[in-house]
Amino acid sequence: MSGRPEEGHDPGFVQLLTPEGERVEHPDYALALEPGDHRALYRDLVLVRRVDAEATALQRQGELGLWASLLGQEAAQIGAGRALAASDFVFPTYREHGVAWCRGVDPLTLLGLFRGTTNGGWDPQEHRFGPYTIVIGDQCPQAVGYAMGQLLDGTDEATLVFFGDGASSQGDVNEAFIWASVFNAPVVFFCQNNQWAISEPLERQTRIPLYQRARGFGFPGVRVDGNDVLATLAVTRAALQRAREGGGPSLIEAYTYRMGAHTTSDDPTRYRADAEVQAWKLRDPIERVRSYLHKQQLVDANFLTAVDAEAETLAVRLRAGVRALPDPDPTSMFRHAYAEPHPLVDEERRHYESYLAGFATEG
Amino acid sequence: MADTITLAKAINQGLRAAMEADSKVLLMGEDIGKLGGVFRVTDGLQKDFGEHRVIDTPLAESSIVGTAIGLAIRGYRPVMEVQFDGFVYVAFDQIVSQMAKMHARTDGTVPMPLTLRLPYGGGIGAVEHHSESPEAYFAHTAGLRVVSPSNPVDGYWMIQQAVRCQDPVIFLEPKRRYWDKGLLDVDAAPFPLFQARVVRPGSDVTVVAYGPMVRTCLEAAAAAEAEGRHLEVVDLRSLSPLDVDTVAASVERTGHCVVVHEAPVFLGLGSEIAARITERCFYAMEAPILRVGGFHTPYPPSRVEKHFLPDLDRVLHAVDAVLAY
Predict the structure, then answer these.
(1) ipTM
(2) Per the CB < 8 Å rule, is A175 touching B68?
(3) pLDDT at A12
């Protein structure tokens, strides 16, 4: 079936840091990091998990309409996000909060989308990070088009596009594989296989390991331990470099697990066993880094305390910031429906403004 | 300099001018390169502009639109061709959920200056899925603009104006009029893209049409003239935005209105026009607005399509009815 590496079926599985925090080498993916790099990755992981926990809490308190948790997928997103060059462009789904963090998007901006104050929130060109895409897989052909533009421009930039195991069944994702292949587009397809598409398990999407699909489209695929930030960093760097050098697209399957619900509206106890969740807790992406840092004596208690304190400060800022986010002006919806003036939109805005003004003067 | 030219050739020349004016303009579609498109609208453009600017794509309409969106984010100005009306539904999600909404979603930071060319409408004896009129779906979608030229002069100018527009434009080409000829003066000033035009003045009944039905209505007006009835024919040209002012001004004069399109009458453009003109011209109107169009049936096999498509007689039948009301 889908070849689960935890069952010992997949010798191609790339791992550089075991769940126990032991550094292991892989012949194809050497990674030399400074001590400061390790600490920076740890800080990223802790902070995005704290953002995620705070957002979940804010949803429970009624401050957000919805939240799509990244719990368990921090290493996949931070490793991929930190592999990017500043000039690369990213196309996310709606769960890439860790990648957004790496692209300098303020987490408070992400919360605006889930609070309902905006459908976007950041300038994609400024952050080189596209808008969150909610229709499953739609961003994949867009990413390939963007990469075709990079190729036409003759740059050494690359494009990184995210999707999930559920999206791998979408026509648009498979079309994107074909287009990337035949145009040799500098795009890296980064699939976070978190095992569940809401309630549907991986086996409902595929009968072979997802990374093996790449071969049929004519480019390489690799499966990486998605809970290993060193491995996702090394593998994504290599794939982006290959794209930059004219090697064309590749597929990364980051094998990970959605520890929480699909979104705050979901109840995973209806469809999956707690034993499975408990088993994945032992492969936590942050614990193994902390363990490694300790063993290598790369951190002291002060550093760990400082990161935790920074996370808490960030959470406090988010909490206050979300509550202070103003609702948009009622007529803001008319503002960007079109880039150029549109007589119908203008007329409807005028009518609605005068309708609203009628209430103000009745007082 | 004025030349007699077909609609297909006029759009071809307009695309050439758009590509010469802006190096970011790309053409994308199936069979548009070496073949020059199944209707030859892009004939010769790949030879002159190269394979990087006139791109033969894989057979995947959803990704024609999807990749064009990505190219637009990158700063390009793609002109897509979807080969036939009935194949555009494959790309509907990228058109409606992405292309139409991207500018609003990104608070105006990412415009979508895309043009989607779509040969549409019936009357050419084609097999199923090659004769449809899907314009209402697109006109109903906020974020899109929808236009349709009815003649070569408009074809030449409107395609260039659509390409320059910062919003996504669905550019509907009346395929059965591709071979109609007109006198094109490339030095003349173009008419604004989103305005309707009175193409035949008259005092008795306003007949509103667009795309392939404009010629049908002009022929009907000529026939009515012989019977002493003066029809004013308005070519809408733009379906979204809709130039209600021009239609209303005409109906204020005539007091009668008939709207004609190939698309099914039910919830077609005619319904919107009837509602808006009724709101605007209620006291000037001497009869209800009648709509002439296709039936609420799937597009029929070609041997009976002449019964589905409005023709001169059906237009005149409606004209008689509004005048007799």
Answers:
(1) 0.96
(2) no
(3) 79
